[in-house]
Specification:
eight-stranded antiparallel beta barrel, 8 strands, 1 helix, 2 domains, globular, mainly beta
C-alpha cells in the first residue's frame, strides 16, 4: 500500500513539474519556432543578426478600408491570432496601431520599416520594429515582428460608392516575433 501511494505521489509531482516547466518556458509545443525562409526579393525584411525567433502565430481576420472620395484608405486590421496554421488555439488579437495583444495581457506595437510584395494580389510582407512592449507573456521583450505569407487583404480596385464607405477585406498572415539574443542591445 505504501508503495502504491509513493508511486502516485511521484507521478503527480512529475506531471506538476512538467506543467510548471512548460508554463515557465512561456511557449507551447504548437508555437515552437522554426526558421524563416524569405524569397530573394524580400531580403530587406530579414531581421538583423542578434535577434532570435520566439513565436510564430497565424492571423485570420480583415483589413478595414474607408473610401475618401478619391481612394481607399487603410483604417486598420482586426484579426484573431492562433497558435496553429489551422486557426486553432487562439493566443491573442491584432488590430490597428499595429498592435498585437496576447491572451495573457502582454502587448507589442510596431513601426513599419520595410515591405515586399511577393504576391501582387495580397497585402505586402513586412518587417516592423517593436515600438512599445508592455506586460508579460509571449510578446514581452519583442524587438521585431514580421508579417509573412499573406493572402488577401488588399484594398478594392473599384471606387467606393460614397465618401466614408467602409469595407472589410478578409486576409490571413503569419506573424513572427523576435527578441534580442542574451547580451545583445535592444533596437
Amino acid at each position: 500500500m505504501k508503495l502504491a501511494i509513493a508511486i502516485k505521489q511521484q507521478l503527480v509531482y512529475g506531471v506538476l513539474a512538467y506543467a510548471v516547466a512548460l508554463s515557465l518556458s512561456n511557449i507551447s509545443l504548437a508555437q515552437r519556432p522554426t526558421s524563416v525562409e524569405l524569397p530573394e526579393q524580400c531580403s530587406q525584411i530579414r531581421v538583423p543578426e542578434g535577434n532570435s525567433l520566439t513565436y510564430r502565430v497565424y492571423a485570420l481576420g480583415v483589413q478595414n478600408y474607408t473610401w475618401d472620395g478619391v481612394s481607399w484608405g487603410l483604417t486598420g486590421p482586426m484579426a484573431n491570432l492562433y497558435s496553429s496554421p489551422n486557426y486553432h488555439g487562439k493566443v491573442g488579437i491584432h488590430h490597428g496601431g499595429p498592435t498585437w495583444i496576447s491572451n495573457s495581457g502582454g502587448l507589442v506595437t510596431g513601426v513599419r520599416e520595410y515591405d515586399c510584395s511577393p504576391d501582387p494580389n495580397s497585402i505586402p510582407w513586412l518587417r516592423l520594429r517593436a515600438d512599445e512592449v508592455d506586460g508579460v507573456g509571449m510578446f514581452s521583450d519583442t524587438t521585431y515582428v514580421q508579417r509573412l505569407n499573406t493572402s488577401g487583404g488588399k484594398a478594392p480596385v473599384n471606387p467606393g460608392e460614397y465618401d466614408g464607405q467602409p469595407v472589410s477585406v478578409p486576409y490571413t498572415a503569419e506573424y513572427v516575433f523576435y527578441r534580442a539574443a542574451p547580451g545583445q542591445p535592444q533596437p
